[in-house]
Write a structure and sequence with these properties.
The complex is a heterodimer of chains A (about 270) and B (about 280). Chain A is α/β, with parallel strands linked by helices and about 270 residues long. Helix content of chain A is about 35%, strand content about 20%. Chain A starts with a helix and ends in a 5-residue tail after the last helix. Chain B is mostly helical and about 280 residues long. Chain B has two domains: about 35 residues, no CATH class; about 200 residues, MetI-like fold.
Amino acid sequence: MTASASAATGSQYDIELRKVTLLFPRPDGTGNLPVYENFDLVVDQGSFTVLLGPSGCGKSTLLNIIDGLLSPSRADALNVLGRDLRRDPDVTRQCAYVFQNPRLLKWKTLRGNVEFGLRGLNVQPRARWPELMDKYFGVVGLRDFMDYYPHQVSGGMQQRAAIVRAFVNEPRILLMDEPFSHLDEITAAELRRELVRLWTQDDVRRTVVFVTHDITEAVQLGQRIIMLTPRPAEICFEQIVDLPYPRKMDDEGFVEIERTLRRVLVERAGVPA
Amino acid sequence: MTTATTSHAISRPVGNGRRGKTLRRVLLGLLPVVVLVALWWAGAAALDRPRVYPTPPLVLEALGAIASGQGEVGSTYVHIAATILRATAAFAVSLVLGTALGIVAGRIPLVFSLLENVIWVFLAVPSIVWVFIFAVALGISNVVPVAALAALLTPMVLVNVAEGAKSVPSDLVEMSRSYHVTTWQRTKGLFLPYLVPYIASSARTAFALALKLVLVAEVVGLATGVGYEVKYWYTRLFMAPIVAWAVVMIVFGILVDYLVFGRLERWVGRWKGRTAGEVTLGRVE
C-alpha cells in the first residue's frame, strides 16, 4: 500500500512520458543505437491518439514501454494514470493491448482466449464475465463463434477475438499496435468502423493509443495524430482532427488532412514520396 | 505357402481402395517376420539342441506356461506386475520431474546453464552403473530400479522439454505478460499446452526405455520381476522361457505404444488441423 501511495505522481494526464531514452545495443557491438532520446509524450484522458510513422521507427516499442513490457534505459517520468509504473507495475492492469497479430492460444477456444485475459487482469466481479463476453463478442459479430478454436475461423475473426480480449476488460487505456495491418482492406475497414462504434458508445471514453503507418487509417480514427521520425524517434508533427465520427473518407476536411499528412510525412519523416 | 499367398496379394491390382492398401501393408509387414521365424525354425531343427536352441513350438509352450500363471519361481503374473509397476513408477517420476525442471530450465537461461553439464554427466552414465550405485547406496529394494531408471530418464525428458520451453513463441509470452497473467496460469494455460507434443514424444521414448531397462535392474539384485525370471532361466541354461519372456515384453511394449502413446499423439495433433492457426505464431514484420 505504501509503495502504491508513493507511486502517485499527481500527473493530470493518463499517460505521461518525460525524457525517455531507450538504447539498443548494436548487433556488431559498436555501442548503442538510440531508439528514443529524451522523448516526451503526454496523452489526455479519454482521447484517441494515433502514433503515425514509417515502419521500424519504434512506434510499437513505445506501446511496450507504456504497458510496462519494456523498461527504457532512462526516463524522468513514466506515468500511467498518475502512477509511476516503475514503482507500481500493477497500474498497467488498467491497460489492454491489441497486438499486430492476434496472438491467440490455439489450444483454447475464442472464449477461452478471452477468459485468459480476464483472469490475467483479474477483472472483478467474476460473475460479470459471461455478460461482458456476451456483450463484446456480440459487438464484433462473433457471438456464434465463441466456442470455435482459432484455426477454425478466419484471420479477420481471430483479430476480432483479440480485440474482444482487450475490450472485455473495460480497460481505462487501450493500446493498439497496427491491429488491422495484416487484414484485407474490406475486413480492416469493417473493424475500424466497429472500433469507432465501440469507443464512441461508452459513457466514459477510454483512452486509446493507436499505432499505424497508414495515413487514411490515422485520419479515420484519431483525434490527435502524432507523427514520428525514424530513429531516434522524435515527434515531427502533430495534427488535431475534429471531424465527427463516423468519418467519411470523401469528406473535404478528411481529404485535406490526409493531403497535409502525406506531404509532411515526405518532408519531415524521411519517407520517399 | 504363406509367401505365395503374400506375393499374390501384392501383384493383384488394388481394386477395393483403402482396405486393399491396408491389407497389402499388413502382409508386407508380416513377410519378414514369417521369413525370420522360418529361418529360426530350420536352424534350430538342424542344430537339434532344443534346450539351448529351441524351436518355435517350444517357445510357444513356454509362453503357455507363463500364461498359466504357474512358474517355477512363483506366479508369473506377480513377476509381470512387479516389472510393470516399477517401470511405470520410474516413468511417472521421470515425466513429472523432467517436465517441471525442463520448463524451469527452458525459461530461465541461468538455470539451464547451471544444469547443462550435470545433465550431460547424467546422460553419459551407463544404465548398469546407476543400478549398482543405487543398489549399494540404498540396499536391495524396489526403490533401486525406480531410482536408477528415474536418474536415467529424467535428464532425457528434461532436455526435450527444455528445448520445447525455449521455443515457446515470444509474442505469446509477451501477450501473457501484458495481461498480467500469473506464473501458475501461464504454466497451465500457455507453457504446458504448448509443450504437450514435446512431453508426449518424451513420454513415448521414456516408457519404451523404462520397460527395457527395468529388466537390467531386476537382473542385478531383485527376487521378483521379469528380469529375475530371465536370470533364473539363464542360470539354468534354458532358452525357450527366456525368448518367451522377451515376447511377453515385446507384445506389452507394442500394445502400450499403440494403444496409449499412439492415441495420445493423434490427440495432440488435433490442433494441426489448418495452418490458419499458425497466424498466431511467428511475428510477421
